[in-house]
Amino acid sequence: MGVKERLEKGLIKVPGGTILIAKMADIMAWARKSSMWSLTFGLSCCAIEMMATAASRYDLDRFGMFFRATPRQADVMIVAGWVSVKMAPFIKRLYEQMPEPKYVIAMGGCASAGGPYRDSITIVKGVDQFVPVDVYVYGCPPRPENLILGILKLQERIRREHLAEKNGLPKPVREPIIIPEAGATG
Amino acid sequence: MPVSPEKQSTLSTVEILSQGMVINVGPQHPSTHGVLRLILTLDGEQILHCEPVIGYLHRGLEKMMERRPYRHNIPFTDRLDYLAALSNNLGICQCIERLGGVEVPERAKYIRVLLMELQRIASHLVFLGTFGTDLGATTMFLYAFRERELVLDLLEECTGARLTYNWIRVGGVPDDLPDGFAEKVLAFVKVFRQRLKEYDQLLTRNRIFRSRTQNIGVLPKDLALAYGTSGPVLRASGVAYDIRKVDPYEVYDRVEFDVPVFDRGDVWARYLVRMEEMHQSLRIIEQVLRDMPDGPVQTKLPKIFKPPAGIAYSRVESPRGELSFMMVSDGSPNPVRVHIRAPSFVNLSVLPCLLEGAKVADLVAILGSIDVVLGEIDR
What is the CATH number of the domain that holds A143? Predict the structure, then answer.
């Protein structure tokens, strides 16, 4: 059933306008997926691409993404950059401070697996060693389009989770989504 | 001043109250431009003492470089100062070229200077955007990034990447400029001149912006020299020191440009230096495109590159200041020792002096005006 038919089923015409009737779970899923606020947390190079994604041309606001400076108001953490042993405890604490339900996007090769610094003694080989990661976005750094694709996939997952809850099915296992690196032509 | 825990237990109430409050800024703080931590001691609104803590991005890069052949190290330098990846590429390539006595073709030199100045504009635009956001002018962020995308389009067309270009090679550049590149750059120069005027109207003549930057964080000339600062921070304090003039590399001695110098030494002067540098970069770009000769762009080098034993040192003017590389060779394919002199690291060392006595609200303005990149501070 398409969105249009579903909408029309719930629409009731009353004098002076129209009322939309929908199930609470549907509205919740729609609201949650379209207002993912993310934590401003730039570590290194990928942070600049994250800023570019949020700025004029790519405009993350279109997808309801809005950067918040405090973890208490954030739903999703984008780890953008390499994670050193000194930085890792702070990331873990920030993750713990975020309210449930929370999601993590590992942006770039360094946050996913250590990247070019894999053989360095001070670099943690991927942020998934201490926080659960939902989406891995590959690239060094990933193009903004690639990050947006990762965010859209995460939105799809959030919607699915709620559909399963509504139908009494077990919640889907949160297996990581992997966004492969795009070429120069996208 | 912070007191040791042993001494703390013997202090009286009056003494404890007069010590000031210690607050911690960072490493996760939106205005520290990366993961810098500042431990501030406050007396009301005034900063008594500031202690920067760095090392949150440390990855032992200089040691890692010793384990790789010379040319494999170029991609690492992209990720040092990630706002000006090409300047870093040029720094290490010049150093390796001096070590091995490699000649660079004329056309490659011109292409390098062209890319360097485009990169300087892109880097200063990020400064402008983040600096504006820090001071409450969020519109500036969107405007600056709009123009930055235009520069990135040009650089992407030439190098194939948006941020980590890895395009300067030992002995030249890997490929010639794409067809019609010069026309596109000139079209950009024309548009950007207009946009710079818009920025002037938005910020330079803005009274709120002026009162938040003028006479804030004054760095005297002697202090700037004593700390060894370089780049816009030094030039805003009245010292005309630019590696492009003092020790010209590539073709900087053949192009005409001015080095902007201001005597005020405050946040406002540092902002003006960067704005003026963008104008000068446009001038250089036009001259380079006019004078660019035809010819090859790369010198052929052996597959396994073994420079003779010796030491080489090179310095370039990155958007943040004097960036230099030193490499020691013993005739093997890998360097024995690499040292990187990162301009941000030296410029950051002056921060505690600037913050002493300043108001907390000016912290973001002062830190933003130094324009540090943590990737090259920690290495």
Answer: 3.40.50.12280
Task: List CB contacts (< 8 A) between B61 and chain A.
Answer: 120
- Residue A185's pLDDT band, with cuts at 50, 70 and 90, is very low
**B296 vs A33: CA distance, rounded Å:** 54
Instruction: Count how many domains chain A has.
Output: 1
CA-based nearest distance A125→chain B, Å: 12
Nearest CA in chain B to A81: B57
B33/B57 Cα distance (integer angstroms): 13
Higher pLDDT, A25 or A34: A34
Summarised one tens digit per residue, pLDDT across range A111-121 is 888 888 888 88
Residue B180 backbone dihedrals phi, psi, to 5 degrees: 70, 15
Give mean pLDDT, residues A142-168.
Answer: 79
Query: Do B28 and A90 lie within an 8 Å CB cutoff?
Result: yes
Residue A82 touches partner B, C-beta closer than 8 Å: yes
What is the enclosing helix (H) or strand (E) of B351?
Answer: helix B351-355
Could you report the average pLDDT of every consecutive run of 10 residues in chain B (379 residues)?
A: 60 62 79 79 84 87 87 87 89 89 88 90 90 84 89 89 87 87 90 89 84 87 89 89 87 88 89 90 90 86 85 90 90 88 90 86 87 85
Residue A22 belongs to some domain of the structure:
no
Q: What is the DSSP string of A94-106?
A: HHHHSPSS-EEEE
Residues B219 and A37: their CA atoms lie apart, in Å, by 39
Give contacts of B79 with chain A, Cβ < 8 Å: 44-45, 116
A28 reaches B (C-beta below 8 A): no
Count of CB contacts below 8 A, A vs B?
A: 93
DSSP character at residue A123: B
Q: Is residue A174 domain-resident?
A: yes
- Tokens 């080489």: give the residue: B312
Instruction: Give dist(CA B92, CA B98) in Å, integer.
Output: 10
Closest by alpha carbon to B81, among B342, B281, B273?
B342
User: In Å, how far is A16's CA from the nearest CA of chain B?
Assistant: 40
Q: Which structure tokens are listed for B69?
A: 């052949």
Token digits for B267?
A: 């946040």
Min distance A75 CA to chain B CA atoms (Å): 16
Cβ contact B149–A56 (<8 Å): yes
**What is the structure's pLDDT at A164?**
62
User: Closest-CA residue in chain A for B146?
Assistant: A56
Q: How many whole angstroms from its chain centre is CA B178? A: 27
Q: Is the pLDDT of residue A60 over 70?
A: yes
Domains of chain B: 5-53 (no CATH), 61-378 (1.10.645.10)
Query: Which residues of chain A neighbour B142 with C-beta distances below 8 Å?
Result: 55-56
Treating both helix axes as pointing N-terminal to C-terminal, what angle do B106-134 and B267-291 enclose, rounded to 10 degrees?
A: 150
Residue A135, domain extent: 35-179
Residue B340 Cα, gap to closest chain A Cα (Å):
17
CA–CA gap between residue B34 and residue B83 (Å, rounded): 12
Pairing of strands B321-329, A17-20: unpaired
